[in-house]
Amino acid sequence: MRSYLIGLLAIAAPLGFLALLKPPASESPEERRAVASGRTVITYWDRHSGHEHEARCVLIDEFNRLQDDVFVRALPIGYNIEKLLTAIAGGSPPDLCSLESTVLISLAPQGCFRCLDDFMAQSPHLKKERFFPHTWEAISYKGRAYGIPTTTDAFCLLWNKDAFRRAGLDPERPPRTLAELEDFAARLTVRGNKGIEQLGFLPWLPWDLTHMWGGLFGGRWFDNITGLAVCGNNQRIVESFAWQRSFTLDPNAKTQKAFAMDPTKIAAFRSGFGAYMSASNPFYTGKVAMIAEGEWQVTFIPKYAPELDWGVAALPQPQGAEPRCYSPSCVLDAIPAGSPHPDAAWAFLQWFYTPRSDGRPSPATDYCAMISNIPCRPEDAKDHRFMGNPKFRVFVEELLTKPVVTYPVTPAAQFMLDQIERQREYVVFRETAPGEAAERLENDTNREIMRIRSLLDRTRQ
Fold first, then answer.
1. Are 341 and 208 contained in the same domain?
2. Residue 49: pLDDT band by 50, 70, 90 thresholds?
3. pLDDT more than 90, % of the chain
4. Is 112 found in the same domain as 198?
5. Among 266, 262, 303, which Cα is nearest to 281's?
6. Closest C-alpha to 200, from 213, 218, 216, 187
7. Torsion angle of alpha carbons 217, 222, 224, 228, nearest 10°?
8. Are 40 and 70 within one domain?
9. Can you point out the beta strands (E) in 341-380?
10. Which structural domain range is residue 42 located in?
């Protein structure tokens, strides 16, 4: 996300294009009645789509029925951040929106979102101490809150029990150490005449989780006090890069790791993978025996692969590393700068995040249960709907019992994450040494951070 994008859009965006960003005329009978009765109609841009957006709409409909002052119109925009940026820059933003915390922190310093401190001070349920600390940090910049944390995640190890049985492994006993993970990966990888038939484990599958592995190794990517990357000389970070590289063959070694594979064959194997959110997901079809995944799989697997026999456990860490869990970011609700109706937007948000008057949990908690994400307040995460499911409970207990590895809170967060993935690719294809990759990453990230700081300083002058 380039810091100067807002300024460029504000200058260059044609008025005709901005007109396209405005919501279409009211079409639903409910909204027409709301307009006729004088209610304030506000627009909510949802970064979710599909069943997750539909779940949000169920709760929005509840809000619209319960009172006569505000009517919320919800539109799914998905990850279309460019649309949101253009709308804010052109003075035509939605009244409120949901988005990722890394996007918020990239844009809040530029004045793209309202500070919510005054609003949130009105509600005892939205105090800082009520939230998981990492989710509050994710929505804050220089001590001020610019969003309300809605959902967060935790990553664990998932394994295919049938694959374990075929490999002669105990299907109820996952790997508990990094050495066991490597041993199991070797035993679960099946090679045939045409290449890989089943992949035991790959650290960057299905997502690039290099940032996670660095944290689980005990490494430190970023210093929140100085606001700078500090990974260049961090031995644990270097070790995590080297460990990921061990999953590809070393052309100069006399002996190879039993789980190491030709990277070109990995690429060919992955080209046959099906869509992630479908029955052809490679973990569901048995092409991959173990993966690092999030709690949403508790809903996805019964939907797309109901016959799959699977387990979930904490991710193994290197010997001697402090036990940690990985919860990289959160999804949040925010009010853009220039929101046409900020008070009405807040009325909805206050309702959404407050327990109902009859004693039931808040709509936000219901939403997390409906889409199988973890609520951002520990007291909500302990609700029976999350802790009562044995598999989901594993994910929640990671957050409740361990220190959290999370994304760096900096306007350059997305830049840094992109560079982490790029350097991992250089390392595993043996184009860059692990130590060199860590140094390049630190230097490139800090150069970008200083560039952003300079730009923000000029903007304030």
1. no
2. confident
3. 78
4. no
5. 303
6. 187
7. 160
8. yes
9. 374-375
10. 5-151+329-387
pLDDT at residue 461, rounded to an integer? 61
Strand 70-76 and strand 40-46: pairing? Answer: parallel
In terms of pTM, does the model score above 0.85? yes
Alpha-carbon distance of 210 to 214, in angstroms, equals 6
Per the document, the length of the chain is: 461
At residue 267, the pLDDT reads 86
| Residue 108 contacts residue 141 (beta carbons within 8 Å) | yes
Who's near 395: CB < 8 A, 6+ residues apart?
153, 154, 156, 294, 295, 298, 312, 374
Query: Given a cut of 50, is residue 4 above it in pLDDT?
Result: no
Tokens of 446: 């800090």
Burial class (CB in 10 A: 0-12, 13-18, 19+), 418: middle
> For the chain, how many structural domains are there in total?
2
Instruction: Tell me the C-alpha distance between 157 and 310, whole Å.
Output: 10
On whether the CB atoms of residues 363 and 371 are closer than 8 A, the answer is: no
Two tokens, residue 373: 């994400």
Give the pLDDT of residue 27: 67
Are both 321 and 334 inside the same structural domain? no
Detail the DSSP E strand segments found in 281-362: 290-294, 310-313, 325-326, 330-334
Is the pLDDT at 24 greater than 60, yes or no? no
Band (pLDDT 50/70/90 cuts) for residue 26 is: low
Measure the CA–CA gap between 96 and 105, rounded to whole angstroms: 16
Q: Where are the beta strands (DSSP E) in 329-424?
A: 330-334, 374-375, 404-405
